[in-house]
């Protein structure tokens, strides 16, 4: 038996994702019509021996999470459960804390996936590789290539090219180490608990001896981090291997990254769910490229959508509207002849007619092989907002005949005019 574990973090995480994470835990933010971690769970469901998925995080249980769990349980016939850490325990602390639940039923191995990544997860290929390289007590991490410059923002892996053993691992190094980066997706054998136990023990001991620092941050003795405490020690012991993929993979740290993730998940639907992609036809809106429209949405036949557009539940799109490279979230209304470009329209917002909501993408450089999405700072060195996609928070009213350009609008705003390069608080 194999299990799947998703590290969903908690309310203090996903801050760069505001204002969208103000309403909904970031892992539930919809991309290509489905919550971010729905795509992880769907990938898990394709692994033949995988019947159970554990979500580990420090969100208070909430209605949205419970509803999501019920839905994926029904759809994929998997047992899906949420385990709440009593405080943020780090990327490995929760795995150790809930070890009894993880090891219940004696799984052969378990996947661990960061929630804030998206990709065409090659889980079956990882499992095959894992079984081939080890004797049941080894661990496999998913790696992919990045540019030398960008690799510094990730965990970097140096492998033995012949055996794919990880010989060296450095988390977010200060200078170039390797362009193979850690994708935040692992396949561990139960043996990993031994290393987690040792790290836990070490932290407890340090806590007792190092009293001043620890009394200032009492939480740290329970925290364990895979990246800094486990992988570095496991490297070059013959127990840690890397499976490298060329499939689509990206981090989802900022709201802008969801537009990029949306585009790629829609492209994957051609292979996995062609039925989810909107088609042209009589009495239907014009569709250009890949578009997902929720069945309950109402889109006027004179509207033009695409490429790379997702239209959520109960959305209403009026006459002559043009939407491109954008997400229109549940319950929103776009009135007649408005243009939406590189933007996210938050839940239950209304955009008036003849308006223009536009953002600026920061896609990876197409001329650089292996380039990943840059996570740029909100402000530049002069204190000005960097051009980015436009994000409209939930329940925002945008009047007719205005232009909203490269702006972030917080929830429940009633805008009275045009805005350019602003955060509207
Ligand atoms: N349950 C739980 N508890 N989850 C957590 C906690 C915690 O205390 N802290 C972080 N996570 C989850 C986050 O929700 C996220 O899904 C994942 O763990 C990693 O989060 P970060 O700590 O923000 O790390 P990162 O994204 O900067 O870097 C990690 O991912 C990169 C790939 O995206 C590292 O593993 C890098 O090495 C890796 O390249
Ligand atoms: P490409 O030819 O695809 O490069 O696009 P474009 O240069 O014609 O224009 P743009 O990418 O800005 O917009 C895409 C589509 O939206 C075009 O067909 C425009 O006619 C249309 N469009 C642009 N601005 C508006 C607007 O303010 N309102 C409406 N309803 N449509 C618009």
Automatic annotation (TrEMBL):
Family: Belongs to the transferase hexapeptide repeat family.
Domain of life of the native organism: Eukaryota
Pfam families the UniProt entry points to: GMPPB_C, NTP_transferase
Sections of the chain in a coiled coil: none
Gene3D superfamilies recorded: Hexapeptide repeat proteins (2.160.10.10), Spore Coat Polysaccharide Biosynthesis Protein SpsA, Chain A (3.90.550.10)
CDD domains: M1P_guanylylT_A_like_N (cd06428)
Annotated ranges, domain Nucleotidyl transferase: 3-224
Record-annotated Mannose-1-phosphate guanyltransferase C-terminal domain positions: 287-424
Protein's organism: Lingula anatina (Brachiopod)
Protein name from the UniProt record: Mannose-1-phosphate guanyltransferase alpha-A
Signal peptide: none
